[in-house]
Design a protein that fits this description.
CATH architecture of the largest domain: Up-down Bundle
Distance between the termini: 89 Å
Oligomer: single chain
Strand order of the largest sheet: 1-2
Number of helices: 11
Shape: globular
Structural class: mainly alpha
CATH superfamily of the largest domain: Rhodopsin 7-helix transmembrane proteins
CATH class of the largest domain: Mainly Alpha
Strand content: under 5%
């Protein structure tokens, strides 16, 4: 006789099938983006936007891999298929934790890069996202993510997939008396609430700044020089926005009190949103980024790699700032004459 806590068969079939389908699409999309990026590495590596999104590819692959290898088998089976194993589930849990924190931190860097370009002195952007400093920024972020996640996981604070609930849940049951790991894990929970809020504030400020600049300085040259940066801003907002949706879903949907099996479908929806968040990144670039589309076409048509990126046609941010200053001076002069 089946265990009374085992989810109904139809729920497991629907959940396992949809998770497999969405996860496979996300996996293939990210692998295609890896192929395009590798083929055009010499050109893409010059742009901080692509360097940051490459790190998010790693996070996407880790999250999707954990879903396909943990959530899908357990969902179909209705019980913990890894209950007799120790190392393998531990590694998979670590992968999911790495991927989630990686995506969150690099999403912050992505929107922070846009903020520095539009709303801060160019020297500040060069300090964090310059030709060489961008590598230091990425390395420091990786070291923080890996060290923090490794310590808490090795100390017993892990993510568990609950078979009768069909969702991942953080747990520190194995941490024992290690209060430091518990505190760091709790800090991570608050961090996951705070960072999306910070991202939202930053890109709202950037959007208002861009809107003001376009209204105040309608010079043709300034508009042309900022066009690509605005496009990258929109792509950053789309990528970060879906990640924020994932955080909201993970935080608030489990609090909805409904009778089974509706609650199981809500838990499955949370997992699907997590996978879709990791799938959105390549989809946004393939749909909205002209350079990535050109790279994909060159990959399939066996042509040479992309030689001239659209970003190379834009003037430098120093020149853009100079144009803004000159436009401001001209506007002030006209107003004083009038």
């Amino acid at each position: 006789m089946a265990n009374v806590s085992t989810p109904p068969l139809e729920v497991r079939l629907i959940g396992g099938s949809t998770t497999s389908l969405v996860g496979t699409v996300g996996l293939l999309g990210n692998l295609l983006l890896v192929a395009v990026s590798f083929e055009n590495f010499k050109n893409f590596r010059k742009i901080p936007f692509f360097l940051i999104t490459w790190q998010m590819i790693i996070g996407d692959l880790l999250v999707i891999s954990a879903q396909l290898t943990v959530a899908v088998p357990i969902t179909f089976a209705g019980y913990d298929v890894y209950k007799n194993a120790t190392t393998f589930p531990f590694i998979l849990s670590l992968m999911d934790s790495y991927g989630y924190l990686c995506n969150m931190l690099f999403a912050v860097l992505l929107i922070l890069n846009r903020f520095f370009i539009f709303c801060a002195p160019s020297s500040l952007n060069q300090f964090f996202f310059g030709k060489r400093s961008i590598l230091i920024t990425l390395i420091v972020t990786w070291v923080y993510a890996v060290c923090r996640t490794s310590y808490t996981t090795l100390s017993g604070c892990v993510k568990e997939f609950i078979p009768n609930k069909l969702h991942f849940r953080p747990s520190c049951r194995s941490a024992g008396s290690n209060n430091v790991a518990r505190m760091i894990s709790k800090f991570g929970m608050y961090e996951s609430y705070a960072l999306p809020g910070i991202m939202f504030v930053l890109y709202m400020v950037v959007l208002m700044k861009v809107r003001y600049d376009y209204r105040a300085f309608k010079t043709r040259m300034l508009s042309k020089s900022s066009k690509i940066e605005v496009r990258l801003l929109v792509q950053s907002i789309l990528i970060c926005g879906v990640l924020q949706l994932e955080v909201l879903a993970f935080s608030f949907l489990p609090k909805i009190r409904v009778s089974p099996p509706t609650g199981l479908y809500i838990n499955l929806l949370i997992g699907l949103i997590s996978i879709m968040s990791s799938t959105t990144h390549p989809m946004v670039l393939f749909v909205f980024n002209m350079d990535v589309r050109q790279g994909m076409l060159s990959l399939f048509k066996n042509k040479t790699s992309v030689q001239i990126l659209s970003m190379s046609h834009t003037v430098s941010m120093e020149k853009t700032a100079a144009l803004v200053n000159r436009a401001t001076m001209r506007r002030a002069t006209v107003m004083s004459i009038c």
